[in-house]
């Protein structure tokens, strides 16, 4: 990207007030919340970087689509608009809408995974791993080794370790491996992209072992932008053309439309195989709703269809990823250790490097998450030891090599001045970092513990 500032490719038509409450009140609320920022009321958060899931600002085009909602129980015209958009953009013939991405994972994984089978990914995210384990499957991460070094520069740190993938599939065979899942961009790795060459090679290796490949497509457009900007041979290709090629290498995908479809609710499963579509759509009736509405209102499907068209606009993507890079540069220039290079949807602060005096058993990134709200009213989220959970067989805590604070930037919501406030908060914490205390569990749920756990300061 050039060093020149990029203006947002939109005008502001409506605003929503936010307010900063006092530090003493923030400290009180943290204690009442069990030091879990998920338990904070949104109105008590000044700048909310908890997630980019469902937090986007919709366009006037999308809002207009809401008024064209066809709320018929079966065969809504909005479903057919969504189906046609997915066919044209992603190249899949069949689509089952769902209420969000985890609904898509549920109905697809129930059909694909048998107890004891492995699902191999570059790096599975929390809900994906949970859905695999609920089916008594085993989630295996085979991301490239460079990914685990937060300071290493590589254009595609979401890539698979192809040699490890080949060896694993050769060892286990198609009977023991349900499928390979390519996550784009790779959230747990720091929002890092996967190259087209790597996606293509994954498909070739898996096909050689008779194992199907699927894609977690939540941030597919951001991944396509990185391919266009960083990968040889793609600078002259359009974002839609890159998207079509990406999806040509997989059998289907799950999609949380709350990310790269710019909506507040929704998702889908998209497939090539008609027989698999029939099986998945039958499960949708049980868990989501009739296959042509999948737990969504017609107006939601219309907004999703329109958001999928808007997301591949190169001007939008340049500003979107440029804003994330802006925050990353602010932190880097201040000497704050972040995952390099900056990814697509968030800046990830290396909690272990930022707070080296806190041992991994006291979850440094969670401690930093707490401290950022206390200091600046900013809510981030931990992506590290708390989120990783426990080994389902041994019950021991899993400590990933990266313990990160994720600063997730909602789409079309905040200005760069808000990013300045975030950076100033972290800089202030850095000046007194030795005073930051670690945390321990007070209440620990058995599954997806980070959402509802309660902590105490150590």
List its salient traits.
single chain; 458 residues; alpha/beta; Aspartate Aminotransferase, domain 1; Aspartate Aminotransferase, domain 2; 2 domains; seven-stranded mixed sheet; three-stranded antiparallel sheet; 40% helix; 13% strand
User: Per the principal axes of the C-alpha atoms, what is the gross shape?
Assistant: globular
The number of helical segments is 17
Q: Tell me the Rg in angstroms.
A: 21 Å
In what range is the share of β-strand residues? 5-15%
How many independent structural domains? 2
Mean pLDDT: 96
Strand order of the largest sheet: 2-8-7-6-5-3-4
What class, by secondary structure content? alpha/beta
CATH top level of the largest domain?
Alpha Beta
Brief overview:
This protein has helices at 23-32, 60-66, 77-90, 101-112, 126-134, 162-172, 196-208, 220-230, 239-248, 274-287, 298-310, 314-333, 351-354, 364-376, 385-388, 416-430, 449-452, and strands spanning 47-48, 94-98, 118-121, 138-141, 177-183, 213-216, 252-256, 267-271, 346-350, 378-379, 381-383, 404-408, 439-443, 454-457.
What can you tell me about this protein's structure?
The chain is of the alpha/beta class. The protein folds into 2 domains: 23-52 and 313-457, Aspartate Aminotransferase, domain 1; 60-310, Type I PLP-dependent aspartate aminotransferase-like (Major domain) (Aspartate Aminotransferase, domain 2), CATH 3.40.640. The protein has helices spanning 23-32, 60-66, 77-90, 101-112, 126-134, 162-172, 196-208, 220-230, 239-248, 274-287, 298-310, 314-333, 351-354, 364-376, 385-388, 416-430, 449-452; strands at residues 47-48, 94-98, 118-121, 138-141, 177-183, 213-216, 252-256, 267-271, 346-350, 378-379, 381-383, 404-408, 439-443, 454-457. Strand 3, helix 5 and strand 4 form a beta-alpha-beta unit. Helix 8 (220-230) crosses helix 9 and helix 12 runs parallel beside helix 16 (416-430).
